[in-house]
Amino acid sequence: MHLRKKPEMKIKLNEVPALAKEKTAVPDIIHFVWIGDNRQINYDYIDIWLKANKNKTVYLWLDKGSYVNKYFHDSIREYALSQHVENYSALEINIKNIAFSSLFSKIKEGRPFDKLVKTFLSDHGIQKRQPPGRVSDPQISSGNIVVMDIAGLFTAEFHDFMKYYYYEIMLRDNLASASDIVRLLILHLHGGVYVDMDTLPYTDDAFRGTNRFLQRNGIAEDDYWLLMKTRSVLGKLVCPDDFYCSGDDSVACFYEGKYEKILRLIEKDMAKFTPENIAPLGHIQVHKNLLAVASLRRLKGIYFNNFMASHPGSKAVRIILRVMKKRYRYLERNNCIFECYSGGKQGMYLSRILTWRTELMTKNYCVTSALTGPGLILEVLLGLAYQLIDLEGIEPSAVAEYFQDEHYGVALYQHNLDTPDGQYSSWRN
Questions:
Q1: Rounded Cα gap, residues 281 and 278, in angstroms
Q2: 380-415, pLDDT tens digit by residue?
Q3: Model pTM?
Q4: Is 1 domain-assigned?
Q5: Residue 429 included in any domain
Q6: How far, in Å, CA of 8 to CA of 196, rounded?
Q7: Element (DSSP H or E) covering residue 193
Q8: Which domain holds residue 86?
Q9: Which of 113, 154, 225, 284 sits at 20 to 30 Å (Cα–Cα) from 62?
Q10: The domain boundary residue, chosen from 257, 277, 297
């Protein structure tokens, strides 16, 4: 699909399905991103993707110095609390501001983030406990996995995004936004398929008996049995001697009488399940200058950024990055990076992101999605749709639903969000 600019070149809505033939296969690469201590990576999930997609190469993108990030934020928080000041949060914010101002120029020079952080904390008397030792590179047994360095993404063209990345790492401890930035740069520079570390391949087709029973009895899906299905798949693939695998008690409700039948059907379906039942991704077809994003058939007009695909150099991905950059600059102009939003500018389109600095403190989660995440992506894709297609009088929600068509739209369904690792958002805890 060409990104036409002139209004007179808009295509009719009924002509959109014909554009399916313009889709072409993206590179056979699956990208994973991990920011933090790489000893916490769940390689079981990567292994499942690899076994189902033997013809693809996996790029595992790491920030090798970011293992100190938790130590950095925990140390500053503990220090601020120990000072017995009236507003310890303000002290915590101020120390992080000083750290960023002191260290970022050195990071840009290529000096190791982990060493800089440890030195800063020690020099300022903030280091209250033994810093973590340097984490060694992950031991990769599969020749299909290539370890990549996140720092290599911040080329001259995208040098500003290094600053935004470290805003998130150092000032907010928001690894979700940092990962959002990285995944879009990866897709723009390399193309292929991006997969969240807590996402698994689609396996719901394996539960035919269970799904027939649910449909026949009008039982609506809920998070509990969706998670139970995934846990049973993991039990078969990862720990076959333990059907439920180790984990939390969030699915205990399945032992209540009303779920007993569903539980038995899940077990019955799993008795016939083998790794070969997981469908390979095959050649993911995407319009050359667009971006395909995760969706769920049961959620109309809703998209996610846990599973995405594009060609390298996609114009849509470039536009998304450009809009993201404008939003960070908006925060900078309004002094909302190093200071907390104090009111004003209410009702403006971007005023919703002005609480950037305190979003994770107040748990008012309205910034990340619109700044770097699926909210940003959907807004840009909808904007492009209105530029390219004659959609006069059609609500954005209807357009978003229309483009869930997997043949001519931008939706991807070959993924599973309902996993034990994905049950809780790490950046919200």
A1: 9
A2: 999 999 998 888 889 999 999 999 998 889 999 999
A3: 0.92
A4: no
A5: no
A6: 40
A7: strand 192-195
A8: 68-123
A9: 284
A10: 277
